[in-house]
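Hi F.,

I've been meaning to write this up properly since the lab meeting, where we talked about keeping a consistent format for the predictions we share between groups. The idea is simple: the sequence comes first, exactly as it goes in, then the structure tokens exactly as they come out, then a line or two of notes. No screenshots and no reformatting. I'm using this chain as the first example so we have something concrete to point to.
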Amino acid sequence: EKRTVTQIEKKGYPDSVYINAAKIFQGIRTEKNKDRNLVQYGDNSESPMMAFKDEHSRRGAYELAFNALKYQDLLEAILLDSKAYPCYSIPDELTSLLVVMLYDLQDRRFQKRKIFAEEEVVAEVQEIGHYLYRYRTKLAAALARCRIKYDALSIDYFVPETLRKQEQRASALPLWFWINTFKISLEDVIRDLEMKGFTKVESVSDFDHYTYAVDQHCQDVLVFPSSLREELLNLDLYADGKLLLQ
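Output, unedited:
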């Protein structure tokens, strides 16, 4: 029976992830010349990052921040075209939060985000989230106009060419995972993977989707096809810190 990659429904993140993603994005965003700088970012250097609940939250914050960086020009254009920006009730210090939450909103196809039980509610995140959702129709229309203007089948068109080439090269590379031998043995990892339908092969050249290999030089490192990235990052072995992505 042929298996397919599991499609993960995107429901958003807890408030703390957005706050941390905004803080990360603020530090890495592209600085523009004054004549091109239509979106103003204030200084939020004094606002502290919130504690990460777990590794999943940490990964979510960094992925969100770097995706906002990849599409910064597009996201800013959407805000301006939709007239969602400027908004005088939202200070410049929250612009980074506005941008990262807009990326996430369009990534969810402008659907409402899930409310996480027992999460720590952050007033700024709630405010920005409600504001963007009220503008969702205009934001979606602005995105559509950008895609029509440039005949873009997806937002990947708007990734800078140098970054697109780097991602293409990276996406073709196999994935290396360290086995956390403080928590699990190689034998137990192999047993768990085989129960999930994975097959061990001798080398990377033998990869055929649900396969893996043991690194020839390091017996506590496993190698997987790049196409399995999302599924591997949602395995219990990864969530429990038993497999660590290199």
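Notes:
The longest helix spans residues 55-70.
The chain has two domains: 15-164, 173-245.

If this format works for you, I'll send the rest the same way.

G.
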